[in-house]
Design goal:
The complex is a heterodimer of chains A (374) and B (375). Chain A is an alpha+beta fold and 374 residues long. In chain A, the strands form four sheets. In chain A, strands 6-7-8-3-9-10 form a six-stranded mixed beta sheet, sandwiched between helices. In chain A, strands 13-12-11-14-20 form a five-stranded antiparallel beta sheet. A five-stranded antiparallel beta sheet of chain A has the order 15-19-16-17-18. In chain A, helix 2 crosses helix 3, helix 2 packs parallel to helix 4 and helix 5 packs parallel to helix 6. Chain A is globular and about 75 Å long. Chain B is α+β, with helices and mostly antiparallel strands and 375 residues long. Chain B folds into two domains: 235 residues, P-loop containing nucleotide triphosphate hydrolases (Rossmann fold); 130 residues, Beta Barrel (OB fold (Dihydrolipoamide Acetyltransferase, E2P)). Chain B has nine helices and 21 strands. In chain B, helix 2 packs across helix 3 and helix 2 runs parallel beside helix 4. Chain B is globular, with a radius of gyration of 24 Å. The two termini of chain B are 37 Å apart. At the A-B interface, helix 5, helix 6, helix 7, strand 16 and strand 17 of A face helix 5, helix 6, helix 7, strand 16 and strand 17 of B.
Chain lengths: 374, 375
Amino acid sequence: MSYLSLGKLKKRFKNEVVLDGASLDVERGETVVVFGPSGCGKTVLLRLIAGINEPDSGTVHIAGQEVTYLAPEHRDVGMAFQNFALYPHLSAFDNIASPLSARGVARGEIERRVHEVAGLLKIDHVLHHLPKALSNGQKQRTSLGRALAGNPGVLLLDDPLRNVDAKLRYEMRLELPRVLKAFETTVIYVTQDYKEAMALGDRVAVLMGGGFRQVDRPASIYKDPDGTDVARLFGDPTVNLVPGTIEGGTVTALGARFPLAVSLADGPCQIAIRPESITVTLDEATSAGATPVDLGIGEDTHAVPVELDAVTPLNVRAVMLLRTADGRELLATCSEDEASRLPRGHGRGHAHIRAADLLLFDPAGRRVRPGERQ
Amino acid sequence: MATLTLDSVSKVYKAARGRPVTAVDAVDMRIADGEIIGLLGSSGCGKTSTLRMIAGFEDVTSGHIEVGGRVIDNLLPAERNIAMAFEGYALYPPLRVRDNIGFALLRDRQPRAEVKRQVEEIAELLEIVPALDRYPPTISAGQQQRTSLARALIRKADVFLLDEPMSQLEPQLRAVLRARLKDWLITRRMTTVFVTHDQTEAIALADRIAVMEEGVLQQFASPDELKERPANLFVASFIGEPPMNLFEARVDRSRSGLGLAVLDAGGARAFELRFDAEVAGLADGAAVHLGMRPHRLRLGDRAGAVQGTVTSHSWLGDQTHVGVEIGGTECIVVAEGEVPARLGAPIAVEVPLRAVHLFDADDGRALFHGSEAAS
């Protein structure tokens, strides 16, 4: 059995079913990010694992032992919260030391552990400060340090970066995987930010509609999502969704006919196309000398005539809003340098799309894979 | 629809005790007809005071504001022909969303059918059609914000003022609604000033951005200019996500070209950079801040690359962010697409001259931009 195992957890509050049979297995030392839209039950799930709430049915196992109805202090679980929850009258050192002191760990050992944690989190220089003298980022690191110092079997992190500013959030997003790996702790990390999910998770568990929609490595979820709803949660700008028709080994969409590498049953479908997999050429630019070949556009692409409506630079990349002849909107991205050559107003051109970059779904939004549809 | 000029505009708040507070300090801006301007800064930088002076909700302490060449400082807000979307939304609770949006047009006695058509067009653009027949208190904060925005956008006015217009957008709608809004403003040649604390939003929408800090206009320039030629260290560190990598460094002119000795936090030499560039005005040994934008750095081992170790690695679908430790300093490199890297593995970072920005160690003003020497 996995180190942490959730079996068909159900939980309702009054008339609202929050969890409706959520199952998840997490290996020892693994970081699994629970990700989903707000209100999907992420925090409730953490509370069931921690023992703050009990499920209506289903089981929680930690290290092979059933703990479903065990009090929080008898489970080997630590938790850090988005509002920090530090003891205001204790220094950062004593806050971090608190789970160790409570267990009666020897003073020397406490010193050693607190400094080890503080070093990794880069707060060794503020350990003697009270929380009110700490910056938000330092408070957040202290709160995290306290959860780590207890060296719990399972560490639960409830959206810990929610209340820190963008810069700190970015730093921690890069730093946390290394810190968590250094402690070899099993981590359940809850977030609403897909970038955090992709950066931090060994695996990402997408929680929607009361259960886990897809549990997989970040790369698999991004490149091979099980549903249009999952696809839409990952990526900025959001993935494009367009209707299409599968017929005789081809799929028709956006007025173009794409060959299918695999055999799928005929019928209507939905198609997801990531903005970064659409390459745009403008007619003016093409006539000025640049050809699709110069831009690395191969023969396996199909050109869809589009009007460029607007260009909105994003960080690192720029977003283009395109409109097809039948009035459908598409979002594509290009590099900052390419964007600086685009017009301020409208332009005419083509969206180049490779058949291999199309993700196919049935009309209800479930992924269509070879052999899965009759 | 008209030009907008701020001529040495200041706002000083008198304090009951103590010294008066200068919220806006002699701000000059000449905004062209149909231009989209972002006022960007952190809270308390003076951006909202500036917007409120243009709208007429705050008096101008000194200086003048002109719309279409006409001084408007002494006009009441209602006499200025300026439309505004408020950060607090300011919707009429007893009116349906539809009537909130069409309020000004109905007041101006435009035909009902025409108002209906326009309201539905802007509601579709901002994805609030399902809320049209509901009342403001019963819709989400995000929908209220878009209602307030819609109400301003369908008016006929000389200038449009938008206070944090899209701060409440859900992530899945953000990119498309920003682009539709920009298209709407450009197509209708609407002179627009919007306030935001979010540099991403400012860069996405604005033709030019006014970066403010402590009441002072730090730089007023296009997004490209702010990225390639930031006027000072404040602008350089405010613009860009992930932010610019910053180091302490010393200029080394002992050999030809431009040399930089990059220092670690303790002031010891961490690594060196050398460029074959003709650079005037940088003295040998001068203390500088070195700034390098993460996506201008490249992973690769060509001549002149600096050697480091991978400290973090995150792939976000369309780009990869790699943290690299070089001689005790840390920097971030952003690469397009998916780039493999293992924690703790050696990695080489190429620093093109274009990536390099130098700022005075004392006052932070820009001394050198690699993009100027490289082109």
